[in-house]
């Protein structure tokens, strides 16, 4: 591909050139567990990381590799590693960076599954302590940093509340502390926001959402920005900066200097934890990504219209959507998001509280009640009783999921139909 190429062209062509043997223009689904070696020396070189190629689909697979190439091109990274789900990406990324007793700082405005993983499982199973902090106050993150802090984790555009983080501010704090900044870019997608351009070091995604776009396949991805100097901060990250006995003394940050994090995620992370993405899911995601620019435009335009309608409705107490002129995050949307758009996900708080939320969810006809975002169809859910149910009341409020809060993922239908559907539901809520 040319060095300078527009996103829409990348969406169609990156990572998926025509097959050199058959001429097929669509990527193949390599539903194979393993791959034949050319010789015993070829096999030995692959296992020793001296040659690139395919061994076993837990490590690498041609269909998944095509998806990884497209994801890396989308974000402007140096390499990507696909996983079985979005939450699996967090485990993969953190396992390379953390040791028992280490700490990391994360925004309190997080997807409920991520918050639960950080709060409970990471601490209980691995001894990694998470300090949750208000994403609108970068200085609070800075004050939390200790000599055991290894990562800062934020969402570029938060799920469900739509809070936009000041990525550059967090990147400066992370750089000063000698630690990487990880940005979950799931809700914004690289079509709207490219965090590497603002100093992020690692990007994670749930590809289940907007990339796939049709609610038909699970997946996640970690993208290596290639910008963090691991050897400069060697004592903090021994997995990447000391000899790896499993690969005869390999030091990933030294021997794979162009993309050490991506290489480690494949050679160690997928090898030992086995959360690889399946070829069929990778294929479906590749197909969805070709239309991502078209869908994101419609998601954003529809969401803007729906948010404006809700902001004027008497049954709605408030709307949290960064695209609205009075949103406190509108300036950050103008800075970080293409055209100042704020994706298709947001929340609104009902005057009637929990009871009104239940009635609305059960009254709408076009919006589907399910636990996902980023589909072509519009979706609705009550976070406090579902996605964020495991939080206590104080944590729910901090996450923007109070008792009367409804989350919607606005699809690509006609906006007027969606507005009418919500209007009828609010009339009985």
Give structural notes.
With 429 residues, the protein is an alpha/beta fold. The protein has two domains: 7-287, Type I PLP-dependent aspartate aminotransferase-like (Major domain) (Aspartate Aminotransferase, domain 2); 293-428, Aspartate Aminotransferase, domain 1. It has helices at residues 7-13, 40-47, 62-75, 86-97, 112-126, 138-144, 167-177, 189-192, 238-241, 252-255, 260-273, 279-289, 292-311, 330-336, 353-363, 393-398, 415-428; strands at residues 79-83, 103-107, 129-133, 149-155, 181-184, 202-206, 220-224, 316-320, 345-350, 368-369, 379-381, 405-409. The strands form two sheets. It has a seven-stranded mixed sheet, sandwiched between helices. The chain has a five-stranded mixed sheet with strand order 8-9-12-11-10. Strand 4 (149-155), helix 7 and strand 5 form a beta-alpha-beta unit. Helix 13 (292-311) packs parallel to helix 17 and helix 15 (353-363) crosses helix 17. The protein is globular. It starts with 6 loop residues before the first helix and ends with a helix. The model has no long low-confidence stretch (mean pLDDT 95).
């Amino acid at each position: 591909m040319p060095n300078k190429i527009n996103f829409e062209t990348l969406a169609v062509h990156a990572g998926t050139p025509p097959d050199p043997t058959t001429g097929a223009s669509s990527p193949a689904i390599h539903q194979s567990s393993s791959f034949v070696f050319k010789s015993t020396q070829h096999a030995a070189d692959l296992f020793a990381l001296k040659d690139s190629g395919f061994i076993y689909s837990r490590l690498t697979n041609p269909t998944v590799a095509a998806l990884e190439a497209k994801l890396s091109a989308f974000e402007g990274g140096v390499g990507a590693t696909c996983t079985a789900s979005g939450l699996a990406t967090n485990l993969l990324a953190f396992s390379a960076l953390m040791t028992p007793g280490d700490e990391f700082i994360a925004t309190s405005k997080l997807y409920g599954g991520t918050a639960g993983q950080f709060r409970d499982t990471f601490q209980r199973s691995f001894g990694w302590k998470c300090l949750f902090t208000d994403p609108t106050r970068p200085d609070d993150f800075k004050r939390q940093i200790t000599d055991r802090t290894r990562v800062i984790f934020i969402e570029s555009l938060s799920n469900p509340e739509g809070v936009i983080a000041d990525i550059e501010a967090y990147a400066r704090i992370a750089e000063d502390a000698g630690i990487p900044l990880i940005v979950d870019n799931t809700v914004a997608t690289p079509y709207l926001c490219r965090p590497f351009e603002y100093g992020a070091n690692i990007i994670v995604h749930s590809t289940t959402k907007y990339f796939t776009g049709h609610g038909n396949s699970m997946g996640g991805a970690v993208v290596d920005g290639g910008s963090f100097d691991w050897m400069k901060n060697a004592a903090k990250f021994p997995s990447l900066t000391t000899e790896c006995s499993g690969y005869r003394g390999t030091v990933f940050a030294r021997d794979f200097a162009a993309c050490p994090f991506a290489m480690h995620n494949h050679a160690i992370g997928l090898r030992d934890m086995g959360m690889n993405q399946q070829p069929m899911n990778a294929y479906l995601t590749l197909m969805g990504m070709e239309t991502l620019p078209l869908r994101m435009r419609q998601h954003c335009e529809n969401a803007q219209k729906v948010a404006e309608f809700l902001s004027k409705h008497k049954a709605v107490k408030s709307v949290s959507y960064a695209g609205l002129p009075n949103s406190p995050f509108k300036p950050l949307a103008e800075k970080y998001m293409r055209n100042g758009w704020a994706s298709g996900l947001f929340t609104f708080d009902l005057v009637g509280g929990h009871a009104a939320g239940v009635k609305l969810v059960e009254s709408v006809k076009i919006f589907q009640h399910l636990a996902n975002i980023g589909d072509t169809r519009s979706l609705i859910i009550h976070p406090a009783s579902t996605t964020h149910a495991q939080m206590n009341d104080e944590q729910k409020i901090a996450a923007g999921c109070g008792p009367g809060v409804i989350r919607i993922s606005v699809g690509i239908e006609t906006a007027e139909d969606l507005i009418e559907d919500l209007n009828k539901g609010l009339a009985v809520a």
